[in-house]
Specification:
single chain, 12 helices
């Protein structure tokens, strides 16, 4: 199988008999060498000593005295955040178990969003790598990027285009400096830009093979409107995600619309979609501008009804992905954890 996302950290891990990921010291060390933690020339002796000790033994317990000795308050705070994250990983048998424990913690998620996204990144890559090589194509990988990378959305002539937000923002900065960043660089740097005035690297069947050589550039645009390969790929990745965690087959089908009368159970795939589906569930009609924020609709059906809560009565679960509108920008921040926490599975009661 073609390798992709080689810097995710997945290659540093091992698996148990059930195919779940086992934490290794090498992965912990990789996090230790993030820019926020790695010592710099100005670092004090205590900071350098602590980093060296953790690099030698990433699971060691760090004392309050060691932390108090760090001269830079920001560095001290960064270590506290990282070490708290490490303790949560080490306390669980697998990375998947740690991810679920972090999401289910009473009082809400207490781990920095950056680390939650990195766990999702590693796990969804593992899920994709476990698929038969004949199944996986670049559309699936590009769709999976929504699990851990924010997207900028453009709607033009009924096309719903998702571009990596960080890449677009980087291009915006470079454009102001008078430098170029390729075709994607002209993607909606200004809100007034139209699709007709720029050339976009939109993923299609005739250019998708190029993804394998630029998978970590995040510069392919994904169309997710109904009937396009992108939205079907997202459905397939979500099926694999649920199947990996809960060992139960599900079928996810993209939909053109949802009839509110059939809305027995729903899962919002992001904060905005949750609010909009909740309004529909309560019988509140959506305004035109609210309907326009709904980007993709799905129907989920369980292959094993014995695993499902009885009150669902065999009816499907409806799901939606929506965009937030802020400061003239349309953004999507998918929450793959909602697929794990909000399904009507009997064991989640």
């Amino acid at each position: 199988m073609t390798q992709f996302w080689k810097h995710s950290g997945l290659q540093l891990l091992e698996t148990d008999a059930d195919g779940w990921l086992l934490l290794t010291d090498d992965l912990l060390r990789a996090w230790l060498f993030r820019p926020e933690i790695r010592p710099v020339e100005e670092s004090c002796a205590a900071e350098c000593a602590l980093h060296a000790a953790l690099a030698a033994d990433p699971r060691r317990v760090v004392t309050e005295t060691e932390l108090a000795a760090l001269a830079d308050a920001d560095v001290r705070d960064n270590y506290c955040i990282l070490l708290d994250f490490f303790s949560r990983l080490v306390s669980q048998p697998t990375l998947e178990a740690a991810y679920l424990a972090i999401l289910r913690e009473a009082g809400g998620v207490k781990v920095a969003p950056l680390f939650v996204d990195q766990l999702a990144h590693i796990i969804v890559q593992h899920v994709l790598m476990r698929l038969p090589s004949t199944q996986l194509d670049p559309f699936w990988c590009r769709a999976a990027e929504l699990f851990f990378r924010e997207q900028r959305v453009t709607i033009q002539d009924q096309h719903i285009l998702c571009a990596d937000a960080e890449t677009v923002d980087m291009q915006g900065a470079r454009a102001k400096e008078g430098t170029s960043y390729g075709n994607l660089g002209r993607l909606l740097v200004e809100a007034q830009t139209t699709l007709a005035s720029v050339e976009l690297d939109i993923m299609a069947r005739d250019n998708m093979a190029g993804y394998w050589g630029r998978d970590e550039r995040h510069d392919y645009v994904l169309a997710i409107n109904h009937g396009r390969p992108g939205v079907d790929a997202l459905a397939r990745v979500m099926e694999a995600w649920v199947g990996h965690f809960y060992r139960t087959p599900v079928k996810i089908t993209p939909m053109r619309q949802i009839e509110s009368a059939r809305l027995t159970w729903f899962v919002g795939l992001d904060r905005e979609a949750t609010a909009l589906l909740n309004a529909l569930y309560n019988g509140e009609p959506l305004k035109a501008e609210e309907q326009n924020r709904l980007l993709a609709l799905f129907q989920l059906e369980f292959g094993d009804q014995a695993r499902v809560r009885q009150e669902l009565g065999g009816r499907p679960v409806f799901m939606a992905l929506a965009m937030e509108q802020s400061e003239g920008q349309n953004r999507v921040r998918m929450k793959p954890q909602n697929l794990l926490l909000n399904l009507p599975l009997a064991e989640l009661v």
